[in-house]
Amino acid sequence: MFTTYDEALEWIHSRLRLGMKPGLQRMEWMMDRLGHPERRIKSVHIGGTNGKGSTVTFLRSILQEAGYSVGTFTSPYFEQFNERISLNGVPIKDEDIVRLANDIYPLAAELENTELGGPTEFEIITAMAFQYFGHVHPPDIVLFEVGLGGRYDSTNIIYPILSIITSIGLDHTAILGDTYEKIAFEKAGIIKPGVSVITGVKQEEALTVIKDQAFEKKAPVYQLGNEFSIGGHQSLARGEFFNLNTVFEEYSGLETGMSGKHQTENASLAVMAAELLLNFYSFLIGDEHIRAGLKKAYWPGRFEILSEDPFVIIDGAHNEEGITALTAELANRFQDKRKKLVFAALSDKKLDKMIGSLDFTADQIAFTEFNFPRASRAEELYAISTNRHKHYQKDWKLLLENELKETDKDSILVVTGSLYFLSEIKPYLIELINDKN
Hints:
This protein is α/β, with parallel strands linked by helices and 437 residues long. The chain has 2 domains: 5-296, Mur-like, catalytic domain (UDP-N-acetylmuramoyl-L-alanine:D-glutamate ligase); 304-436, Protein-Tyrosine Phosphatase, Chain A. The protein has 15 helices and 17 strands. The chain has helices at residues 5-14, 25-33, 52-65, 94-112, 121-136, 173-176, 180-187, 204-216, 261-281, 287-296, 320-333, 351-361, 378-384, 396-405, 419-436, and strands spanning 43-47, 70-73, 85-87, 90-91, 141-145, 162-165, 197-199, 221-223, 228-236, 239-246, 250-256, 304-308, 311-315, 338-344, 364-367, 390-392, 411-417. Strands 4-3-2-5-1-6-7-8 form an 8-stranded mixed sheet, with helices on both faces. It has a 6-stranded mixed sheet with strand order 12-13-17-14-15-16, with helices on both faces. The protein has a 3-stranded antiparallel sheet with strand order 9-10-11. Helix 3 (52-65) crosses helix 9 (261-281) and helix 11 (320-333) packs parallel to helix 12. The termini are far apart. 48% of the residues are buried.
């Protein structure tokens, strides 16, 4: 058993060696042994390719403004492992991690000796979240973010009161399938009988799959563009301005604290969820809670402006759709600035298309690498690029130092790619910015 936080964390991370193992049997086995904490939790389940974390954040912020205690389960973490299990936006304490790891450890050891095999890292963390929110510190509601896919994701043993599918993109195609229909089928696996599903999915072929699954399960569908729609969008210096019409209300002049046109879509999913919680589940959520919640919501690494002098942005654009949103935002907001980009990514992404989009946007692009099992090498990224002003540097610290020195009032520095990369470099980059100022 574990006596320190570091011991617990080392054991949890050691389970990475098992990789990903599809199926829910190990989770169901552990929940049975724990007395089914997941059945004690009132929850919302959020899946999709992009926008899950932002949608969770908007909805959490709205619910907190309305006075509710809100648990969240998200991945990956950005600055601290404990973020993955948070209460009202505050990561749980180190001693909670130790306690939860000790609760799960004997079950993991016992599972090792069964035909099911030992649980993966993600299964252990998910079990810890269920145990915490079900037995240790039950909140009013918990927002569970899907880890990968949906149908066989470890979180999919819950029976939520609402489901949200944010978007569909061609990501993790080796696991989820290589078409929008196949990926939509996996994502739609979180739809439960009779439970309303809210979606921002746009591709008709993906929507058809989701609606078919919802129809089979008699689950009402609330679709962006039909049951709720956005209008009057304008970008603000920090954030977005938009109007929103739903089947219940009309909202004019909503503002988000997070930047990017796509954030208006994530925010609208959260507002639609808040309205369903109000109208069907007696959550007392008012107009003022929605407005304040959207404006105060903050999620690190999503078009996050670290400094305006020099102008530095970090953005976790880790797939094609994320890159498309980023490049559109840069073109919209910074037409008069030279765009200097730094990029690092995982090797299992569609790097050619991602780098092609960045090449088109960047006046100058630099590639680097970081210490992570699936990280691409800097020279491999460099070789894909066709930008005339490209270079690479394996040492990301040295690269950021040099790039920051050369960022003047006529240019912006944008560091993008894997969220794992951004979480590693952000503290150092802030330190560099403070030193420069």
